[in-house]
Amino acid sequence: MPNKPKKIALIPGDGIGKEVIPIAFEVVKKATTLELKAQNFALGSERYLQTGELFPEAEKKALQDFDAVFLGALGDPRVKPGILERGILLTLRFEFDQYANLRPLKLYRKDLTPLKNAAAIDVMFFRENTEDLYIGAGGVLKKGTADEVALQELVQTRKGVERIIRYAFEWAKSKGRQKVTLIDKCNVLTYAHDLWQRVFWEVASEYSSLEKDHLLVDAAAMKMVLAPESLDVVVTTNMFGDILTDLGAAICGGLGLAASGNINPEGLSMFEPVHGSAPDIAGKNIANPLATVLAGAMMLEHLGDNRGACKIEEAVVWVLEHKKVTPELGGMLSSTEVGEALLAYLEGKV
Ligand code: GGG
User: Which of 59, 181, 187, 225, by CA, is between 20 and 30 Å from 29?
Assistant: First the structure.
């Protein structure tokens, strides 16, 4: 019996998201043997500005029927920061319980790193994606006065901490990796990060074949610059994962190559570039589509097509080696020309 088609929800979103998603999805379709059925969801700033709608309930319900979401970016200078990000992006991550944010840091070409004498960088970050300071709990007292008080609550649950730590260890074991490092700030956040400490070492005791390590977040930031090759698999909090993976992207060639997966192992997962909507370069056909293309590879792996995912990564390595890339990576191509170069590689035409 033929396999059922995989239903993909495309959410290009805002700015360069609308340019990179169509390019990357063509590459995904070319690389895979899976039958993909795509449907576009027009969520983002245009709709919000025209109708006031952010994420209607009917669309949330419709998404439950999909196998994956492929998302571009959300953000628009015409909309107050936080409205689109919280109303659409964080809603997707939270309502679909996408608790594992996978962010690979890989140095594909040595000259792309600003670090001197960098060795090979190949780190998988597991960022907890549904708790911490991101849950939106808090409030403001006496707003606008000299006595104003702002509260933003840091919430961690044992269940939330345990599942991301276990997911990181399981992934490390299944991929034959060497070491899992916990990054936290347990010397200062003595309640929330003490929970991370206790749960990490409890779960770690079940994985005798893997080395375990711990770094305080400040020391980890330094290590990522001075000795990134010493990291292998990292598990960390929502906030620290957000910040450290931007640092990680910077040492691996920039946000234009940084991909991510928001995973619910039992539900709907979402794949997106780490970058935002970049309104300053939107509409000019100059955005680098490779981060979204690599997110597409992660989506194929998640859907069970490892071969397709590897083919995409090979194609990305090829365009990087042959400088068939956008100017910030040393090439002279437009966004669509990068897409054409990837397709040509996948079709065996080069
Ligand atoms: N693909 C990640 C994403 O869209 N993040 C939200 C974000 O960074 N928004 C700010 C912006 O696009 O300027």
Answer: 59
Q: Probe ligand 1: pick from 85, 90, 280, max atoms within 8 Å of CB? A: 85
Supply the pLDDT for residue 118. Answer: 82
Q: Please confirm, yes or no, whether 213 is among the known catalytic residues.
A: no
CB 178 within 8 A of CB 211: yes
Element (H, E) at 61: helix 57-63
- Residue matched to tokens 């006595």: 147
* Catalytically annotated residue among 142, 175, 218, 284: 218
Tell me if 339 CB under 6 Å of ligand 1: no
Active site residue 194: no
CB 262 within 8 A of CB 129: yes
Model pLDDT, residue 3:
79
Closest CA to 289 of 345, 223, 241, 341: 341
> For ligand 1, is residue 277 a contact (CB within 6 Å)?
yes
The pLDDT value recorded for residue 1 is 58
Residue 2's pLDDT is what? 64
Eight-class DSSP state of 79:
S
Instruction: State whether the beta carbon of 333 lies less than 6 angstroms from ligand 1.
Output: no
Structure tokens at 200: 């990490």
Tell me if residue 185 is catalytic: yes
Q: Which atom in ligand 1 lies closest to the alpha carbon of residue 13? A: 4
- Please name the helix (run of DSSP H) or strand (run of DSSP E) that holds residue 270, with its range, or none: strand 269-273
Name the stretches of the chain with pLDDT < 70.
1-2
What whole-number distance in Å separates Cα of residue 62 and Cα of residue 96?
Answer: 12
Instruction: Please indicate whether residue 212 is annotated as part of the active site.
Output: no
Which residue type, as a one-letter code, is found at position 122? D
Amino acid symbol at 257: L
Is 242 designated active site?
A: yes
Contacts of residue 255, defined as CB under 8 A and 6 or more positions apart, other chains included, come to 246, 249, 273, 274, 275, 291
Burial zone of 47 (CB within 10 Å; 0-12 exposed, 13-18 middle, 19+ buried): middle
